[in-house]
Design goal:
There is one protein chain. The protein has an eight-stranded mixed sheet with strand order 3-2-1-4-5-8-6-7, with helices on both faces. Helix 3 links the parallel strand 2 and strand 3. The longest helix has 11 residues. It has 237 residues and is α/β, with parallel strands linked by helices.
Length: 237
Amino acid sequence: MTSIREDFREILRLVRPGARVLDVGCGEGELLELLTREKRVDGQGLEISPEGVAACLARGLAVVQGDGDRDLDHFPSRSFDYAILSKTLQQMREPRHVLSELLRIADQAIVSVPNFGHWRMRLSLMTRGRMPETRALPDPWWSTPNIHLCTLRDFTDLCRDLDLRIDSCASLANGKPARAIDPEKPIENWRSESALFLLSRRAESRPEAVPTDLFGEVAMPRAEPEPKPRARRKAKA
């Protein structure tokens, strides 16, 4: 049996059975096939490369060819339970817009990002003075598809700016099992090679209910009677 990538294993744990799932940048459909087989999801993929689309169709998966930077705008709001973006956000031209769109079309988003603040990145820059090449970011600078690299701190700041709630976060490093973390802790910005986030929109504030009477008319508050002035006691001579 083929071993499952640790980030896929964590995504599999997060997605509830039978959910509606959109996998953005689904590649050749490995994750979508896994979710369909193990969780019986109603899945759909969005992939920009013709080769990836052909591979997904060969697996019997529902997929459309499209660009995540532009084509997410065409999906109806709240049409999925989960929108997944696995190690792809840093390749987007407009990551802020993409992240916002994911939480428009789905109730929750599962997003994984390589962490440019990992200690190996810092050490490589400090000692070699060159762009690092690691397991999470293996391509040399001149051929990498990554155009918007970030640290965990950068990503959590963006979530705060977009008013997104981090429901859970897991650290991935050295091929080890995912480890639940608090991404706001500075130490995790050093330790996490990459991180996987479960995100949702913060609950919208609802206006307070307007009280009505039995006939549906707005019930106006009753005016409180003014307190009677107390009689002053006469001073004794």
